[in-house]
Design a protein that fits this description.
The protein has 403 residues and is of the alpha/beta class. Helix content is 34%, strand content 22%. The protein has helices spanning 17-27, 63-77, 88-96, 98-101, 112-119, 121-130, 144-150, 165-170, 182-192, 254-267, 310-318, 337-349, 355-360, 377-390, and strands spanning 10-13, 33-37, 52-55, 81-85, 105-106, 138-139, 158-162, 176-179, 200-204, 213-220, 226-238, 244-250, 271-280, 285-292, 333-335, 365-368. The protein has a seven-stranded mixed beta sheet with strand order 14-13-10-11-12-15-16. A hairpin with a 5-residue loop joins strand 11 (226-238) and strand 12.
Length: 403
C-alpha cells in the first residue's frame, strides 16, 4: 500500500520487539520514524527504518525532564509529529501530560481516568461488569485478614494476579501465578504482596490451553468507530502457559469482534486497542482478561489482506487520510523467534509438544519479529546477544538484559 502523505514523522516512546514492527510497518511506507529507548545496546534500535534513535527512559526519569526532552526533540524535528506509546507507563504518561505534549505532538485523546480504568485490572473488572462484558470471577483482598476470610470459598486452582502492571515492573514482581492449594496461595501472598500497597487479586482460573486465549486488535477513531478490527488467538505463549503471544494465528471470531466494538463504543474509547479474552468451555462465554489501551507487541499478527495494520490506521487517521477497509487474512501466523523457541523447550519438557508438532506449527507463518530480509541488523544483533550470553558476558559487561 502507499500513502498520499508520508511526511508526518512518528516518535515511538520506548522500543521493544513490538516497536520494531511499528518502525518497519511505517518506515516501509517512507514515514520518518524516531525511536526512544533506555538502552543503546538494544537490538531493536539497529533497524534501518529508524531515522534516529535516542536514549532516554521515559518511565524512570522525572516527568518534567521527560517533557523537556520531548519538547527538545519536537523542536529538533521541526514539525508536529505523531506520538505512539508502547507500554502502560508511557500511555499513562501521555494521558497525564496531554496539554504539554500537544505543543509538538498529535495522538488520540485518551482521558487519564479511562486509561487507568482499562490498565488497572480491578477497575477494568468492574468496568466490564458495568457494561455486561463477561469476565472471570475475582476477589481483591486488601489485607491478609480479608484473604483469610475468603480462603474457604476460593476454588482452586486460582490465579494470583497483579492489578497494576506498572507497579509490578517497578518492583520486579511476577504478573501472575497459578496456585493450586491454600498453602501455595498463602506463600505467594507472603512473598509478593505488600500489605501497605495491596496490588494483587485472585482471579478465577479458566481451564483450557493457549488456543483458548483470543485477541482483538483494532483502531478506534475520535467517534469510537472501529476503523480496523481483526481477531486471532494464541497458539503459544512466552513465558509458557501464562505470557504474551509467541506464536499466534488470525481466525475470525464474530463474538469477540462484536463484543469489543460494543464495549469500546459504550466507553467512548479512541486509539489503538489490544484486548484479550479466554473462552470458557464450561459456560460458552468469552471472558475479558486484559485490556491494553495502546498498541500491543503482537500487532503485526493482525495484518489485513491489503497490508493494513493498526499502526498504519492510526497514521492515516491522524494525518486526515482515509483509512481503507480491509479483511482478515485468515490463517496468517506471526512469530517471536527467540521467545517461541524458549517456550517450545518448556512444552516439549512437559510432554505437550512433539517434534512433528513443533515443525508443523510454523506452516502459515507470514512474518517473524526479528528476521526480515530487508532489515537484517536487528536479527544479527539479537544473535550476537545470545552468543555473548552463552559465553557468560555481554557488551555492557554484565550478564545481559532480557530480550
Amino acid at each position: 500500500m502507499k500513502l498520499d502523505n508520508n511526511s508526518v514523522p512518528v516518535v515511538i516512546l520506548k522500543f521493544h520487539h513490538g516497536s520494531l514492527g511499528i518502525a518497519r510497518s511505517l518506515g516501509r511506507l517512507g514515514v520518518p520514524v524516531y525511536g526512544i529507548h533506555p538502552q543503546a545496546s538494544d537490538p531493536t534500535l539497529a533497524t534501518k527504518y529508524c531515522k534516529e534513535t535516542l536514549i532516554w527512559d521515559i518511565e524512570k526519569q522525572p516527568v518534567a525532564q521527560s517533557l523537556e526532552f520531548l519538547a527538545d526533540l519536537g523542536r529538533k524535528i521541526g514539525r508536529t509529529s505523531i506520538l505512539i506509546s508502547t507500554s502502560d507507563a508511557t500511555t499513562i504518561f501521555v494521558s497525564e501530560n496531554t496539554n504539554a505534549l500537544s505543543e509538538h505532538f498529535i495522538f488520540p485523546y485518551q482521558p487519564l481516568q479511562l486509561v487507568n480504568s482499562l490498565a488497572d485490572k480491578k477497575l477494568m473488572y468492574h468496568l466490564a461488569l458495568k457494561h455486561n462484558i463477561p469476565a472471570p470471577g475475582a476477589l481483591f483482598p486488601r489485607s491478609k485478614e480479608e484473604l483469610m476470610e475468603h480462603l474457604n470459598t476460593v476454588q482452586f486452582p486460582v490465579m494470583f494476579k497483579g492489578i497494576d502492571g506498572t507497579k509490578l515492573k517497578m518492583h520486579d514482581k511476577p504478573k501472575m501465578l497459578k496456585v493450586d492449594t491454600k498453602d501455595e496461595l498463602l506463600a505467594a501472598y507472603a512473598k509478593w504482596e505488600d500489605p501497605a500497597e495491596p496490588n494483587f487479586m485472585l482471579q478465577e482460573f479458566i481451564p483450557g490451553g493457549e488456543d483458548s486465549v483470543w485477541m482483538f486488535n483494532g483502531y478506534f477513531d475520535q467517534n469510537s468507530n472501529c476503523q480496523i478490527g481483526i481477531t486471532g488467538k494464541k497458539l503459544r505463549q512466552y513465558p509458557a502457559y501464562k505470557g504474551a503471544t509467541s506464536l499466534g494465528i488470525c481466525v475470525q471470531n464474530d463474538e469477540v469482534d462484536q463484543t469489543t466494538r460494543r464495549f469500546m463504543k459504550a466507553i467512548g474509547y479512541q486509539g489503538i486497542l489490544d484486548i484479550g479474552y479466554r473462552y470458557d468451555a464450561r459456560d460458552g462465554l468469552y471472558k475479558v482478561l486484559d485490556i491494553n489501551p495502546r498498541i500491543g507487541s503482537s500487532f503485526r499478527l493482525f495484518v489485513g489482506t491489503n497490508g493494513m495494520d493498526v499502526a498504519r490506521a492510526l497514521y492515516l487517521s491522524l494525518t486526515n487520510q482515509p483509512v481503507p477497509e480491509t479483511a482478515i487474512h485468515e490463517g496468517r501466523k506471526w512469530l517471536v523467534e527467540n521467545q517461541d523457541l524458549s517456550s517450545c523447550l518448556v512444552y516439549r519438557r512437559d510432554g505437550k509438544l512433539t517434534f512433528g508438532e513443533f515443525v508443523g506449527s510454523f506452516k502459515g507463518v507470514k512474518e517473524a519479529t526479528w528476521f526480515a530480509t530487508d532489515d537484517m541488523k536487528p536479527f544479527f544483533k539479537l544473535c550476537n546477544f545470545y552468543l555473548k550470553k552463552s559465553l557468560g558476558w555481554s557488551s555492557n559487561g554484565k550478564n545481559g538484559h532480557h530480550i
